[in-house]
Structures are given as C-alpha cells and as structure tokens.
C-alpha cells in the first residue's frame, strides 16, 4: 500500500448529536483535528466528554452527520456504507477489552486479521508474517497459546500484533493500558510507539494514564464535547 503523505485524519467543523426530537443532544462541537503519518496523538479528557464518540466516528464505526471528516483520503460525512466498510478495513483497532477470540491461539487470532486484509499472500507468507509480528511484540515463545493461558499484558500484545500485522496507516486505541499494571502498560505503549515509527503508522490513543504521556508527539484534550488546545509534549513540565 502506498504511504500517505497528506494528513491521515483531517477533521473540520465536526458536530455530532445523539437522540431524536426533544431528546436530541449535541455531544461534539466544532471539532478540528489533523493527524499526520507516523504521528502519535494522545487524547485525554473527563469521562463522558466525547472521546470514544470521536474515535468511533474517525474509525467509520458510526456515520458522521455535520462537518467534514476525511480518513485516509475518504470523506466519511454522508458516505455510502461501502466506503465506511472499506475505511474500516484499513484501520487497526485496539480496545481495552482486547476482543481476542478465545477458541483461537495467538497465532490464529493474528493470522485471521491478516487474511482479511491480504488476500494475495500464500499460506507460508501469512504464517511467517504472523510469527514475525508476534515475535516483535515479545510473544515469540507464546505463539501457539490460547488467550486463557496468557496474562492481561500478553493478551493486549496479541491485540496489538493483530492490529499492526496488516501494516495499517492508522491505529485507533481506546484506553489500551487501562487494565494493565504499570510495567505492562508501559511495555505495550513502547511497542506501539516503536512499530508506529518503523511503519509510519499514525496513532490516536485515548488514555487516562498519565504514566504514558511521553510516548505521544502531541496531546489533545476533550472537554464537554470540545477539543481544547493541543500541547506539544516537550512543553509539559
Ligand atoms: N449511543 C449513544 N446514545 C446516546 N448518548 C450517547 C451514546 N453514546 C454516548 N453517549 C453520550 O455521549 C457522551 C459522550 O460519551 P463518550 O463515550 O464519547 O465519552 P468518553 O469521553 O469516551 O467517556 P469515557 O472516558 O467514560 O469512556 C456521554 O454523555 C454519553 O452518555
């Protein structure tokens, strides 16, 4: 796939509402956000401020209503379902609950994702790429383990391997370290950071975890549905 040179995400004047009629409530207000290839953007903000809603709009998991939201060169506002589905397939998702399939081994979980994205690979190539990816996240000796035999941090690493194996140009991560102890959380984000820089993947990561702020290039803050000023990490105390 050709690497992206323009912003991977380009959002202008985005509003979002939930509900109908008298119950209609505005959740996002006039959002502007650009994310460039290889950039790691952390999104923080209080519970209920709209972070997950924005993430799911960028991920083409719900339809945007007002404004402009371009993801990997595709306009998502008023987009037909096929375009949303096609964008969805180009994004790597890492969520807190890792969502591994319990009846499949680590290798099978990762390989299944690769199969969905790369139909031109032979079985041998699929298997090699899967193993290389699991080795890259430090699970070379756990490749044939089922999720129940892995720790929380190891399962989250499988989820990262699964999200990255097809070399997506955008990763969306919603609190990937929330369920992990400090050391595992740190390891996870460092793996993501390393792989992102190597593959020029852009990452938008929602977090409440102050221990990982230094892995980002930029922090944006959501408050009451509004994105507040972006801060350069270097400027933080
Ligand atoms: N499907 C929905 N229908 C109606 N309201 C919703 C829906 N999803 C979210 N909301 C409301 O939208 C607001 C923003 O929720 P959202 O989940 O985006 O916040 P958040 O910042 O991700 O919170 P948290 O940090 O707790 O995950 C909340 O007031 C929530 O109740």
Automatic annotation (TrEMBL):
SMART domains: AAA. GO terms for cellular component: membrane protein complex; plasma membrane. SUPFAM superfamilies: P-loop containing nucleoside triphosphate hydrolases. Pfam families: ABC_tran. The keyword Phosphoprotein does not apply. GO terms for molecular function: ATP binding; ATP hydrolysis activity; transmembrane transporter activity. Keywords: ATP-binding, Nucleotide-binding, Transport. InterPro entries: AAA+_ATPase (IPR003593), ABC_heterocyst_DevA (IPR014324), ABC_transporter-like_ATP-bd (IPR003439), ABC_transporter-like_CS (IPR017871), ABC_transpr_LolD-like (IPR015854), MacB-like_ATP-bd (IPR017911), P-loop_NTPase (IPR027417). Residues 11-236 form the ABC transporter domain. CDD domains: ABC_MJ0796_LolCDE_FtsE. Coiled coil: none annotated. It comes from the Bacteria. PANTHER family: ABC TRANSPORTER, IMPORT ATP-BINDING PROTEIN. This is ATP-binding cassette domain-containing protein.
């Amino acid at each position: 796939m050709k690497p992206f040179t323009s912003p991977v995400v380009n959002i202008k004047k985005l509003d979002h509402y939930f509900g109908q009629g008298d119950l209609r409530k505005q959740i996002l207000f006039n959002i502007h956000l650009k994310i460039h290839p290889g950039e790691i953007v952390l999104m923080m903000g209080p519970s209920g401020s709209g972070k997950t809603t924005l993430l799911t709009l960028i991920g083409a998991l719900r339809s945007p209503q007002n404004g402009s939201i371009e993801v990997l060169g595709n306009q998502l506002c008023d987009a037909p379902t096929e375009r949303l589905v096609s964008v969805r397939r180009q994004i790597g998702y890492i969520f807190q609950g890792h969502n591994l399939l319990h009846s499949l081994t680590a290798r099978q979980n990762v390989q299944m994702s690769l199969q969905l994205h790369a139909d031109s690979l032979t079985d041998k190539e699929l298997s090699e790429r899967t193993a290389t990816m699991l080795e890259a996240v430090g699970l070379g000796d756990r490749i044939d383990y089922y999720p129940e035999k892995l720790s929380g941090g190891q399962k989250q690493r499988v989820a990262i391997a699964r999200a990255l194996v097809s070399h997506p140009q955008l990763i969306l991560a919603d609190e990937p370290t929330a369920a992990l102890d400090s050391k595992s959380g740190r390891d996870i984000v460092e793996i993501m950071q390393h792989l992102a820089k190597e593959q020029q993947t852009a990452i938008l990561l929602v977090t409440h975890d102050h221990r990982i702020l230094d892995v980002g290039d930029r922090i944006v803050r959501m408050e009451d549905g509004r994105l507040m000023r972006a801060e350069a990490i270097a400027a933080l105390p």
